[in-house]
Amino acid sequence: EDVPSQTFDNKDYFCGKETFPVYESIFTEEGETIRKIAIEIEKPPQIEIHVWTIRKGILRHFYVEKLSKREFEELPYFKLITRTTLGQWKIFSEGEAQITQMCESRVCRTELEDLVKVLYLEKSEKGHC
């Protein structure tokens, strides 16, 4: 018997879970680094951008903004860094909330880097899922 081929509407899947594109933008001005991590969500179709302002390794300011896909496409400097699942994004968001409180008074370079690594999915090996 032929096994019917699965079509996923040109979306990437990881262990059967839909993945979403994640973008990053980093720029420095007047001694501050502004790092933005964005995810493209389909329902509702929007881009969620997490903005970190870092001065001398200390997270000075953090906020989240939501844009339409069209508004996001007009922004410069964003590059696609990975695709992630909504589950990993939730872990990222929860970790971000903890780090924001923790890093108000001390340097947190490695914590922020480690948090972004959560979004990268391990390549699935056969039987891994």
Automatic annotation (TrEMBL):
Residue ranges of every copy of the Chordin-like protein 1/2 C-terminal domain listed in the record: 10-129
Keyword set includes Signal: yes
Compartments reported by the entry: Secreted
Domain of life: Eukaryota
Chief location of this protein within or outside the cell: secreted
InterPro entries: CHRDL1/2, CHRDL_1/2_C
A GO CC term assigned to this protein in UniProt: extracellular space
Name used for this protein in its record: CRDL1 protein
Organism: Chaetops frenatus
Name of the coding gene: Chrdl1
